Structures are given as C-alpha cells and as structure tokens.
What does this fold into?
Amino acid sequence: MKIIYCSLILWFFVACSNEEAIGPAQESDIFDSITNKNTDDKIGYLLDSSAFYADSVIRKYIRETLNTVDGEKFTYTIHTEALNPDKEIDAIISVNRLAYAKQTAIESGHVAQAKKLAYMGPFNAFIFYDGRSNSFSIPVPVPSSPLLPLDISFANISSNKHKDLVVDFRIRNSSYKEVYFLFNNKPSKVFQWKNFDGFGTPNSEAYSFAFNPGNGPVRDILVYNAKIEAPKGEIDPFIFKPKVVNSQDLRKRFFYVPKQGKYFSAKDDPEG
It folds into this structure.
C-alpha cells in the first residue's frame, strides 16, 4: 500500500502542476454581482430561481473559483438540506471534473499511469451555499478519483436541529468517509475513516458507522468492522459500489473535542 499511496501523491502533484493558479477568491462576490443584475425581474435566491438562472449562476461561480479551462465540460449536483441553525434550506453543490482529469493526463504524457491510479487528483470538489445569506463558500477540493463523483449525504451529528455534511469518495479500489461541520458558515473537516480498502483483493477490509449520543452535545462516531459482499460476475473495482455487510464488532469509538474542532479516539482504545 505504501507504494500505491506514494504513486497517488506523485500523480496528485502532477495534476496540480497542470492547474492554473487559484487566486484569493472572494466568497459570494461573483454570486452577488449576478443576483444584483436580476433584481428588476424579482430573481434573487438561488433555490427559488428558475433552473436556467440557477445553472448560469452556479457554472459562472465554478468557472471563476476553480479556474476551469476554456470549453471545459464539468458536471455538478445540488444537494439541499438545512445545514445550520437559521432553519433556512441550504445546499451542497458537488463538482466533478473527469473530462479535465483525462485531458490533464494526456497533456502530461502520463495517460497509462493516470488510468492505473484512476485519475487520482484534485478533480472533485464541493461548495456550500447558505440559503439565508444567498452566498457561496469557496470550493473545498476533495482529492479523489473523478471516475465517480462525490457521494453526498447528511446526518444529525452536531445537532438534532440541523444536519451535517457527510462526504464519501473513491481512491482506486478504496473508499473513504469524511464528516464536515460548519464554522462561521465555512465547511471544516472533523473526521475521516475508510469505508473499505483493497476491494477486489483477498485482503479487503470494510467498516460501517453509527452516530450515537455521547457525553457532550455532539454525537460520538462508532466504527464497526464489516465485510464486503462478494459481487457477482466481473466488475471494475475502481467504480463498482459494493454492498457492505454490517456487524456489531466495534472497532473504534471517536468523540468530538470542541477546542480542537476534530474527533479523536478514546485513550483506553488499544489503537487510539
């Protein structure tokens, strides 16, 4: 695995070297400049606008903050949920740049290596949209394989009154889970663990998760050992989504430390 991860890191830097330099983008400036032009038409809040208008706003913001190349084809998906205490509906916009990943591989002359590493690089990202202020956050890159877009879901972890962001992504035949909390309306990663690793090999491992009440207001994260259900027929381990069979075999318990803004395992955990 060390060789694989070294190769992934190498490819990541190769991919980054082909990116244009990203300047200090100002949050919501692009969005506000567009909405202000539409006040006469009573068009304002993104989630209340027409599909055409919302698409034009989102694509312009993505192009200018991610410095997409001219004519680049990318995809995005809007995931709506109440993500902070103001009770307004917010959104997570996940962005996938697979076409750019493939073009980057061609231009770098490392197509074979890129395919072997499932085009690993900074080609998946997400953006937080705040429904109350009608503004975007700066994009959060999630280095991963763009063969699959980010898997976005939500859960009550820091509060029962609003949801928190859970992001699953792929790196070759492995999958990872990240949890993000909002601090001053900016997403911050507080937890990461594997969903599975070594998929398609005899040494595969898998895990399941539960968010349970702990000693504080923020829920603990419990990680259980699990198994991957053997797929039928031939599959591509880079894009196939296996079924994970849960168990009651607890592997780790994580608790949230507010001062650190992250999760840590208990001291009495033998692997903590």
Notes: Confidence is low (pLDDT under 50) at residues 1-43, 268-272.
